[in-house]
Design a protein that fits this description.
alpha+beta
Length: 135
């Protein structure tokens, strides 16, 4: 039987110890990358829903309720699992319409509760005379 040199016996199990310490850190980093990619995607979903709601609510005969309904349809079609618990706020005046869509992003990394929002605003359509007055 050959004897193992004394220097080699001291390093036994070092790779296992390093693996146990490094792999969880790498997995956590990968989960954080995925989480922030989901936040980015959820912001785009919220912005899209807000833009669609604005296009509906700002028309001459549009209403805030129609804008909210359009935003909910857009959210259901695109992001019901990504953007959870969404809220839609439509503020429509005679001159300006503003839509805000907010929600919580699906959690991948433990302990992170991130939010995404989108806002769209534009003038409310109305009939005016060339001088800017209402007919």
């Amino acid at each position: 039987m050959t004897a193992v040199p004394r220097g080699l016996r001291d390093d036994r199990g070092a790779a296992s110890t390093q693996l146990v310490l490094v792999v969880p850190v790498l997995l956590l980093l990968a989960m954080l990358v995925v989480q922030f990619a989901l936040v980015w995607h959820a912001r785009h979903i919220a912005q899209y829903a807000a833009a669609r709601a604005l296009a509906t609510a700002r028309t001459k005969d549009g209403t805030a309720a129609e804008g909210r309904a359009q935003a909910r349809r857009s959210l259901a079609a695109l992001g019901s699992r990504i953007l959870t618990t969404p809220s839609v706020a439509v503020d429509r005046t005679s001159t300006q319409t503003t839509v805000r869509v907010r929600g919580t992003v699906m959690a991948v990394a433990p302990g992170l509760h991130l939010h995404a929002s989108g806002t769209a605003a534009g003038p409310t359509e109305r009939l005016t005379t060339p001088a800017g007055e209402r007919p």
